[in-house]
Amino acid sequence: GAVVSQHPSRVICKSGTSVKIECRSLDFQATTMFWYRQFPKQSLMLMATSNEGSKATYEQGVEKDKFLINHASLTLSTLTVTSAHPEDSSFYICSASNRAAEAFFGQGTRLTVV
Amino acid sequence: KQEVTQIPAALSVPEGENLVLNCSFTDSAIYNLQWFRQDPGKGLTSLLLIQSSQREQTSGRLNASLDKSSGRSTLYIAASQPGDSATYLCAVRKGGGADGLTFGKGTHLIIQP
């Protein structure tokens, strides 16, 4: 299967700071990538769709000014959590799909805001 | 709004048993359905992808079926092994590759040695 790499896998930051998470498709080009959030013992919830060369599309209830998404190339999307607070602590995971619309996921990022 | 339900939420069986995980979705207008495995604190590993026109897919000891009209899918695991212990997630995609996935809450599976 295709490979999606996400970095960092874990990050601890102070309240009020910003954190950037990178998502790369290593062996295929992805015009569209997706960002999900997972709370403990809950399922994944789609946050936003990252479109190469254009603005991201956010799901209802997701603050676009808090979760900045940039998709500057066909292999890289970034999610920046701005002015992070403890309630932003969660597991964030990205996904990209191949031409068969099969989704492949990164390793995820555990964000802890202290 | 699409809703995906997985039953059971948790399952513990002895090694060697065959087992079935169930997934149902409320809107049958899907593009495809995908089964994933998630180990604790890790990302998702794709197990099987079923396109909306397909009835089933097989990979090794895994077999997934899809009944789109009734909004159901099952994941069959044959001859279970302790290494199969994980959370299994079912997800559906509405449109093509530009649409995200809607996930169920998963089935937490434990295979007892």
Textual characterization of the structure:
The complex is a heterodimer of chains A (114) and B (113). Helices cover 0% and strands 54% of the residues of chain A. Chain A has strands at 4-7, 10-13, 19-25, 32-38, 44-51, 57-58, 67-73, 76-81, 90-97, 103-105, 109-113. In chain A, the strands form two sheets. In chain A, strands 2, 4, 5, 6, 9, 10 and 11 form a seven-stranded mixed sheet that branches. In chain A, a hairpin with a 5-residue loop joins strand 9 (90-97) and strand 10 (103-105). In chain A, 34% of the residues are buried. Chain B has 113 residues and is mainly β. The mean pLDDT of chain B is 95. The interface between A and B is medium-sized, with 28 and 26 residues.
Q: Short description, anyone?
A:
The complex is a heterodimer of chains A (114) and B (113). Chain A has 114 residues and is mainly beta.
Q: Main beta sheet of chain B: strand number and arrangement?
A: 6 strands, mixed
Number of helices, where a helix is a run of at least 4 consecutive DSSP H or I residues of chain A:
0
User: How big is the Rg of chain B?
Assistant: 13 Å
- Counting copies of identical and different chains, the oligomeric state is heterodimer
Q: What is the tally of beta strands of chain A?
A: 11
Q: How many β-strand stretches of chain B?
A: 11
Provide the succession of SSEs of chain A: EEEEEEEEEEE
What's the structural blueprint in terms of helices and strands?
The complex is a heterodimer of chains A (114) and B (113).
Chain A (H helix, E strand, L loop, with lengths): L3 E4 L2 E4 L5 E7 L6 E7 L5 E8 L5 E2 L8 E7 L2 E6 L8 E8 L5 E3 L3 E5 L1
Parallel strand pairs in A: 2-11
Antiparallel strand pairs in A: 1-3, 3-8, 4-5, 4-9, 5-6, 7-8, 9-10, 9-11
Chain B lengths: L3 E4 L2 E5 L4 E7 L6 E7 L5 E8 L4 E4 L2 E6 L4 E6 L8 E8 L7 E3 L3 E6 L1
Parallel strand pairs in B: 2-11
Antiparallel strand pairs in B: 1-3, 3-8, 4-5, 4-9, 6-7, 7-8, 9-10, 9-11
